[in-house]
Amino acid sequence: MGAPITLTELSTQLDSLEAEAARSIETAATAAELEELRIALLGKKGRLSGVLGAMGKLSAEERPQVGQRANVLKEQVQSLLGARLAAVQAAALAEQIAAETIDVTAPCSYTPPGHRHPLISTIEEIVDIFAGLGYRVAEGPEIETDHHNFTALNIPPHHPARDMQDTFYLGDGRLLRTHTSPVQIRYLENQAPPVRIVAPGRVYRRDAVDATHSPVFHQVEVLALDEGLDFSHLRGTVMAFLKAFFGDLPVRFRASYFPFTEPSAEVDVQWRGRWLEVMGCGMVDPAVLEGLGLDPERWSGFAAGLGVERFCMVRHGIDDIRRLFSSDLRFLEQF
Question: Does domain 118-332 have CATH number 3.30.360.10?
Answer without folding.
Answer: no
